[in-house]
Amino acid sequence: MGMDTSEWLRSFEATRAAADGWNPCETETLEALGRLRLDFLGRGGRLTESLKGLKGLSLDDRRKLGPRAQSLKASLAERIQRRKSELESSLDLSLEKDRVDVTLPALPPGRGRLHPLTLMALEMTDILRRMGFSVADGPLVEDDWHNFGALNIPEHHPARDMQDTFYLKDLPFLLRTHTSPVQIRAMERARPPLRVICPGGRVFRHDQVDATHSAVFHQVECLAVDRGITFADLKGTLDVFMKSLLGPSTKTRFRPSYFQFTEPSAEVDVSCLLCGGKGCPVCKLSGWLEMLGAGVVNPAVFKAVGLDPEEWSGFAFGLGVERLAIMKYRIPDIRLFYENDLRFLRQFDENIV
Question: Is pTM, for the whole model, over 0.85?
Fold first, then answer.
């Protein structure tokens, strides 16, 4: 007795719908494609069983339905073969791309390097430590007293203006505008004699960012307090410091200036690093480069921290790490320090750690 034609058609149409619904792009591996081929075309596959079922139909039905089944089988086999070729080609390309010659020497591992600003701050700190100074530090967020009041900066002074200082909203604090508050905190913590430095501390100001200015930069602050310290001690210390930092032929020059927390005060110049003091475009043909501010500690500062200015005296100076690094390393733009461009940083490979 022959197989019921309607039953065979239902089975075949379900198989054809499943085959037509197969999306080759969803079969991403050769293993998955192999399972799909077995499901339809294997010995016990759905399409194979449909073809076997043709034997039970009448001769007329076999002649009419057989070509449909064979056509579906050929179409599905062709689609599976095409997808197999695509996957094999993709695999070959992947293997070629990822091929590793294990006989080649291994690549050296990447190694860290110190940032040029860190190098500069460490070098300055090392020199001053050998001169008897110890390291001190203070918070980046300061109160008005330590940042201004104790340093003899009155309320009406322009340095307090909003265009210079970042004040915290709804709080009586600010981002420190210089590292001089570290001097105040050092004198509050310990009685003289003392010699301290704040190496490479970050400071913040409302500056327009350009080739020579940044809203965030770094300073090194130095303070010495003892009995009988004079301006001559300051000059001698800075002369030794600059010669150790920039070379034995470096000369220093002091020009009268004014700072609220020192009296007398001076701007300190050094002989141009490029021309050796002969005059060039960098130093504007003067032979000198402005480097830092310094002076003898103002008696008002000693009074603010409870020290007797009749008993104690001292000197202080501070300089920008970026400014010195620009001069020493011949850097044309301060923004290069902050961009993390490896092409720039790799110039300092000799300082790899």
Answer: no
